[in-house]
C-alpha cells in the first residue's frame, strides 16, 4: 500500500527549492494528485513531471502548478477563471487557496470535463464549477474574475479572457506558437496589459 500522504509531503518539501509561498506548498501537500491521474500512472503521481491523462492532454508537473499559483498571488475569496481543466488537479490546488466555490474552469473535451467533475466531487472539491466548451471564450456569466489563467499555450491572451478579468486583475498563461513563454499580466484601467516574462515553458496548445 503506497503511503500517499508521505509522498505528497515529500513533494511539497522538494518544491521549496522553487516556490517560497507556504500557502501554495500547503495546497500541494493537501491535494491527492494520485486520484487525479489515470490508474496506470498512479505510481508516478508524486514525481515532479507531467503525465498523460488522455485526449492528447497532460497533467502539469507539480512544480509548474505551484509556480503558477505563486505568480497568481491567490487569496481566499478571489474569483478565478481557469482555461483547461484537464483532470482537475490544477483547479483543486487553486481551490485550496481561494475556496472551491470561487473556481470556474472550462475544458474543451467534454469527456475530460465529466471525469474532472467526478474526481473533484470525490476529493472534496465538488463546489468547483466545470463546464465543457471553447476556453477562448471564457465563462462570461461569472465575470469579472480577479485571476485568469491558462493551462495550455495560446498565441496571445484571448480577448474575451482579458475582457472578463477585472481592472487590476491578473492573467497568466504560456504564450507563443513555437517558443512558449510564461507571461504574467496585470490588467490596467484602460484595458491594456502590463506584462512580465517568467521564462520558457512547454504546454499543450489551447484548442
Written overview of the protein:
This protein has helices spanning 4-14, 22-30, 62-72, 89-98, 110-122, 159-163; strands at residues 51-54, 57-59, 80-83, 103-107, 129-132, 145-150, 165-175, 180-187, 193-201. It is an alpha/beta fold and 207 residues long. A seven-stranded mixed beta sheet has the order 5-4-3-6-7-8-9. A two-stranded antiparallel sheet has the order 1-2. Helix 1 (4-14) runs antiparallel to helix 2 (22-30) and helix 2 (22-30) crosses helix 4 (89-98). The longest helix is centred in the middle third of the chain and has 13 residues, at 110-122. 47% of the residues are buried.
Q: What's the helix count?
A: 6
Binned, the helix content reads 25-40%
**Cα-to-Cα separation, first versus last residue:** 38 Å
Order of strands, main sheet, comes to: 5-4-3-6-7-8-9
Structural class of the helix and strand makeup?
A: alpha/beta
Sheet with most strands: 7 strands, mixed
The gross shape turns out to be: globular
Q: Supply Rg.
A: 16 Å
Average pLDDT metric: 95
N-to-C SSE string, H for helix and E for strand? HHEEHEHEHEEHEEE
> What percentage of amino acids are in beta strands?
25-35%
Write down the oligomeric state: single chain
Which residues sit in consecutive blocks of at least 5 with pLDDT less than 50? none
Please provide the count of β strands: 9
Amino acid at each position: 500500500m503506497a503511503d500517499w500522504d508521505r509522498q505528497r509531503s515529500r513533494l511539497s518539501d522538494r518544491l521549496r527549492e522553487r516556490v517560497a509561498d507556504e500557502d501554495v506548498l500547503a495546497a500541494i501537500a493537501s491535494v491527492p494528485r494520485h486520484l487525479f491521474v489515470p490508474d496506470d500512472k498512479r505510481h508516478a503521481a508524486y514525481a515532479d513531471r507531467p503525465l498523460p491523462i488522455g485526449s492528447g492532454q497532460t497533467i502539469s508537473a507539480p512544480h509548474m502548478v505551484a509556480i503558477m499559483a505563486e505568480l497568481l498571488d491567490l487569496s481566499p475569496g478571489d474569483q478565478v477563471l481557469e482555461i483547461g481543466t484537464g483532470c482537475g488537479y490544477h483547479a483543486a490546488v487553486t481551490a485550496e487557496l481561494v475556496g472551491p466555490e470561487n473556481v470556474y474552469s472550462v475544458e474543451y473535451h467534454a469527456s475530460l470535463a465529466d471525469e474532472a467533475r467526478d474526481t473533484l466531487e470525490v476529493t472534496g472539491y465538488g463546489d468547483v464549477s466545470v463546464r465543457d466548451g471553447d476556453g477562448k471564450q471564457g465563462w462570461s456569466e461569472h465575470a469579472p474574475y480577479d485571476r485568469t489563467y491558462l493551462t495550455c499555450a495560446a498565441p496571445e491572451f484571448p480577448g474575451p479572457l482579458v475582457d472578463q478579468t477585472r481592472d487590476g486583475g491578473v492573467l497568466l498563461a504560456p504564450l507563443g506558437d513555437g517558443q512558449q513563454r510564461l507571461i504574467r499580466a496585470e490588467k490596467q484601467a484602460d484595458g491594456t496589459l502590463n506584462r512580465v516574462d517568467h521564462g520558457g515553458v512547454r504546454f499543450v496548445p489551447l484548442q
